[in-house]
Amino acid sequence: MILKITNTPKNLPPVVIVPVASGEGLPAAIQAVASAAGMDAALITADFRAEHGEVQLLYTASTRFFLLGMGAKPAFQDVLKAFRSFSGKYRQKLGAETGISLLHQNLSGAAATWVEAAVNGLALGAYRIGRFKKMPDGNGHPLSAPDATLEILAEQSLAASCEQAARRGLAIAETQMSIFDLVNAPSNKKNPSDLAQWALESGKKYGYQVRSLGKEQILAEGLHALLAVNRGSEYPPAFIIMEYRPETIPPAGLKKIGLVGKGVTFDTGGLSIKPSANMHYMKSDMGGAAAVFGAMEVAAKLQLPVHLIGIVPSTDNSVDAKAIKPSDVIDSYSGKAIEVIDTDAEGRLILADGLCYMARNYRPDTMIDLATLTGSTVRTFGYHAAGLFSNNDELAARIYQAGERTGERNWRLPLWDAYKDDIKSDVADLRNFSGKPMAGAIGAAKFLEAFIEDHPAWAHLDIAGVAFNDSEFSSQKSATAFGVRLLVDYLSHLEGGRE
Prior knowledge:
By secondary structure, the chain is of the alpha/beta class.
């Protein structure tokens, strides 16, 4: 997609989208649009209230104006959602030349913020989920064509900031759509080596370092918990390590952030097998890994001033004669022995190795892990928020604030030591599950905490309810790329690369 910025209403593209917020400024905004279109404002006002997602089509001799309602006091996520929905529903009425007009003072707040949200939403609305169809249905989205042009109409004083915001929104959307492809892919098209290949290609394209440890290297490193989960699989595991830092800033002047993502490419539950009803959705159990991949790529694309380390331990969790059994005691990279109570609590096992490896070998200033970890989080928050756990109040506050800015919301739950009983074991150093149908998300977080090497600034995001969801863009649950924008926003708000 080609982006253009202009401040003149002359020679408008054939399609112009005008985002309009409701409230006190609505009459003036409609009057401005009506004047530009040569129409009667009273007639438009009679039909259009600018409610969120509301669309009003106006015709002139050469241009179709789509008034797109944003609702009252729209936040970033409101603008993004309205534009994405519009892009998906009205794809047949859009053209390869489309404009977004902010010339009518129709949104409050920072224009650049709305431009980023609008461009991101329009691009995401062009995504098609049918990647593996042999006979694709319908025509492609007009804005998906390489020569498609999106023109941003903004005042001259806002041109530079709006152009930067538009390019940022498009860059993030392109990565998010790549993450959609990863998470939506079935497990036979997505094994650990495929995740490693994605990272290697991304690193080569955007200039960050990637290496992937194979099974023999994983054994040599002593990543025994990852190897234990992998025992039932026909595919060897991968331990993917990524590192980005901008070339223009010395590493000593940068904040070092470590990201760890759960990369279970399919989760049967192992011998503690899951019910069959929704097991096909377990192809999404690498949503945490996908968020880390996306954050790494976008940070490199945007050349964010931060030193970023990403680790993804990856395997599937399958059933086989060699698979680990409930009551088995396994080793881990940390040296701690783990009693396996439930083989369906496998994500925390591979994260234990990933977190400890990160803490010991890279010593980041901050560690954040993301995982589609527990059904307990879904039962607590539904499909609207991630569970946030942290041993650092400032870090928790920053992640929460990033969620409020981006719409990728999270809510903090406790890490009190009263919950340590949930991971006590009689036969090993700790167990992977309490065996009780309560406080599951907290118990999982307490387990992970045991492997962070007493790191003073660690956060865990349980994204089980938000990484793969129902939406208007697919007939079944599909990927959301949750975590990518959240992490990028958090990283972008580090002052000079420092918290």
